[in-house]
Amino acid sequence: MPGEPKRLEHPKSVYLIGFIFKIITLTVMIAVIYQITFSPHGPAVLVPIQKKIAEGQKSAILDEVKKHEEYEKHRHFHNIVEYPQLPENMRPVCYICHSNYPHSKNKKVRALLNMHTQFFVCETCHIEPKKGMDVIYKWYNPYDPNPKGPFFGTSYDPETGNLIEVSDYFSKIAPYFVKGDKYESAIQIQDSALAQDYAKVKDQLTPEQRDNVKKKFHINIKPKGHECKVCHSKKSILEFKKLGFTPNRTVDIQQLNITGLVTKYEKFYIPNLFK
Amino acid sequence: MSLKIALKNYFILFLPAITIMLFMPATSFSADIGNCLLCHKYPGISRVDEEGKLKLFYVNEDIFNNSVHAKVKCDGCHTDIKEIPHKHAIKVDCLVECHIIEPASKKKFSHKDVQTFINKSVHGVIDNKGKEKKFKEDFPTCKSCHDNPLYRPISFFKRVRPGISEQSLGRCRVCHKSEDFIYRSYNHVTTRLHPLNIAGVCAKCHNDLALVTRHGLSTKAVYSYGETFHGKAASFLDERIPNCLDCHVSKGESVHQMLTHKDPNASTSEQNKGKICTTIDCHPSASPKLAKYGVHSEFNLTQSPAQYFFTVFFIVLTGGTLLPLMVIIFLDIVRRFFPNASIGGRK
Questions:
Q1: Which of A127, B179, B216, B332 is deepest in the core (most CB within 10 A)?
Q2: Does residue B203 sit in the same domain as residue B274?
């Protein structure tokens, strides 16, 4: 009857059906709007604006770097395995300027030296000892203050003879200064006060000021790392057993043939015995 | 020490070693005879060169051993490396004779035949008049399309599924005694039956607008394939769906011998086009006219006006129906939540 209140007490199922119908309609509506505005399958009316914005943010360097990374994976041909990487703020301060492949001067061994960055932090090789303070080497994991392993590179798979696969991708051997009963980490990570302050203001510093600050990061660092035999020998500064290396792996590292090839021979000719 | 005693001692010393070598299974000889993995097994063995380009050198042995090149020794491809430490390796020539013996011909294996096919195909850099084609650097080389594929076996015993068919292997073992040979042959053959991401490979060039324009091609071929029913099904990784090779290569020919549609021998030529869709594996009862539909149509008024207007019509129809409906639904919701709301005194 006119003037009477409309029926509002619908059954619950009506609301449910209505809700589902509205969701479907809304979804289709969004799809239609996308089809008209951005989809390559439609008139793409907003694409010119999107392109204009993207053009403003375009970086030739970024494009080239990404393109080259893809190209290199393809060129290399040997199926690259992507390992998880630490977030920027959890990496040592060295990574503000240097990468995982920092060695480039000595053409003969630069790739071999770079390989070591997967096993230990820069300071393990480049540490400047402090007077009257001993240095010991332990596994360091930014996610775990007391990593238990198994660590990569410490043992072989008995079936394949390859280095055993591990789930801990982040532990590396790192130096610690011994202070009485306590150990003080010899590395600085990027969330340290100095590093964070530097990251905040580095764009405001002149090149000279930047150089001065960088020196602060290098206080305990020596430019030339250890010689091979400092680690790859029976008198190694690394206590392989304590670090969890198996006996056969320890022998292989201590008597590593690569070290001999690099230090003893100018060229080592591969024998044709099995060809 | 007399010569006789010396020889006897040598014999005693070397006899066990010779015995072990003679009876050692063939599988014990890995591809890494030159001990290249002494260095290359370590992740991170890489460098940035003088031009600021990253060069990767890591080889994962487990992955390599599961790839189709697992039996090829390192120096089978890297023929220039004779000493350690070695200089920058030269670009691998895929046509080189490697140390594999091809079992049917008993000759050293090489991919040379592939180059013969490529030369005759639309992807060869020399045209049919013997002249070099324009923009020859755009034409694909082996690695433009191929990576080092990993074994991806398929079981096709009574039903098709991913993995190895033990029933099939049982039949192989009747004649072949080497487990390694059986495993590799089975994987080699069945891995090659997978049409994995063919369109993705072709897209690297055929979706590059600059390249498409440079070579006067009529369409971004993989993009327009993606617009079709086949392309959409393929994007859901349905491997029964035809990919580029199914239409552009004549049945039984090498996929490397892809001819231009102007060539009368091409599967896509005017006279052969009708047979593409009607093969026994696709639509055997269909009319040859089925192949005449615009399989590479883009949403483009100049290139395919019919498809363009149909698409616009359906967008307008869907939007025109739903937009008013959404307005009504919205007003209905407002009224339910605010039953006494009014605008300018009107309910």
A1: A127
A2: yes
Neighbour-count burial of B31, counting CB atoms closer than 10 A to its CB (0-12 exposed, 13-18 middle, 19+ buried): buried
In terms of domains, do B138 and B189 share one? Answer: no
Are A117 and B46 an interchain contact pair (Cβ–Cβ within 8 Å)? Answer: no
A160 pLDDT tier (thresholds 50, 70, 90): confident
CB contact under 8 A, B299 and A42: yes
List the domain boundaries for chain A: 12-44, 86-264
**One-letter-per-residue 3-state SS of A124-183:** HHHECCCCCCCEEEEEEECCECCCCCCCCCCCECCCCCCECCCCCCCCEEEEEEEECCEE
CB contact, 8 Å: B145 with chain A? no
Chain B residues within an 8 Å CB radius of A116: 44
* A66 and B CB contact within 8 Å: no
Label residue A14 by pLDDT band (50, 70, 90): confident
Q: What is the ipTM of this complex?
A: 0.76
Find out whether B135 and B214 touch, Cβ atoms under 8 Å: yes
Are B53 and B184 found together in one domain? no
Please tell me whether residues B237 and B131 are part of one structural domain: yes
For residue range B43-70, list pLDDT tens digits in order.
889 999 888 889 999 998 888 888 989 8
How many folded domains does chain B comprise? 4
Structural domain containing residue B345: 305-347
pLDDT class for B93, splitting at 50, 70, 90? very high
Residue closest to B49 by CA, chosen among B92, B77, B87, B78: B87
One domain for residues B256 and B183:
no
| pLDDT at residue B88 tops 90 | no
Are residues B137 and B223 both part of a single domain?
yes
Put simply, whether B92 touches A (Cβ < 8 Å) is: yes
Mean pLDDT, chain B, rounded, equals 84
Mutate to test the interface with B, among A19, A37, A74, A78 (most CBs of B within 10 A): A78
How far does the CA of residue A31 sit from the closest CA of chain B (Å)? 9
